[in-house]
Amino acid sequence: MQVEVLTDEDGLKGAWFAATIIEPSGEDKYLIEYKTLRNDDDTEFLREDIRACNIRPCPPEIIVVDGFKVWDEVDAYYNEGWWVGVIAKVLINSNYVVNFIEYDEKITFNQADLRPHQDWLNDKWVVPSDV
């Protein structure tokens, strides 16, 4: 099963990473294999036991036709995972400055590396403006 996993690893906290559930590994835990993170010697994809509360289905794709606006909440693909941020500035050629408030950092992204942010609440996907 394809999923996204929230990790508590230093430097990666708050990001969601694509993974595959391999098998249950205990009460409320699953062995997963990341699709992008590799082990320390870079010989295979990283596997680890993750609590069920840190696993969610992959969000459905939302097509963004007219681009994003300032203050839109987005997920930005950065360092192999999806990080929550807010559009701080609209640039030319479908580029955006994204503010990661939790980290006090702003980074420029192309629209291809952004998706509308969605929350997994009560077993369904919710766009923050719908909350």
From TrEMBL:
InterPro entries: Agenet-like_dom (IPR008395), Agenet_dom_plant (IPR014002). Residues 1-63, 66-122 form the Agenet domain. Signal peptide: none annotated. CDD domains: Tudor_Agenet_AtDUF_rpt1_3, Tudor_Agenet_AtDUF_rpt2_4. This is Agenet domain-containing protein. It comes from Linum tenue.
